[in-house]
Design goal:
With 79 residues, this protein is mostly helical. It has one domain. It contains three helices and no strands. The protein starts with a helix and ends in a 9-residue tail after the last helix.
Length: 79
């Protein structure tokens, strides 16, 4: 592991290369990338929940279709 002096030199070189204004933008981008990666991994871990959600939506659509067919209105023809 680098010691205190080595870390100070590394930080100094990074500041010289990127400048003080660019470092927060880089850190923000890195943080967003890590957050997106974690959420993608989390989403991939539970595919069975997505299948259950799709089945539930299909059931709701079928029920709505049946209700719509059962609630037809009749109108008397105009004379």
């Amino acid at each position: 592991m680098p010691g205190g002096i080595e870390l100070a030199v590394i930080v100094g070189v990074v500041i010289l290369l990127f400048g003080g204004k660019k470092i927060p933008e880089l850190a923000r981008g890195l943080g967003k990338g890590i957050k997106d990666f974690k959420s993608a991994v989390k989403d991939d871990e539970k595919p069975e929940e997505k299948v259950a959600d799709v089945k539930e939506i299909k059931t709701e659509v079928k029920e709505t279709t049946v209700e719509a067919k059962n609630t037809t209105t009749t109108t008397a023809p105009k004379a």
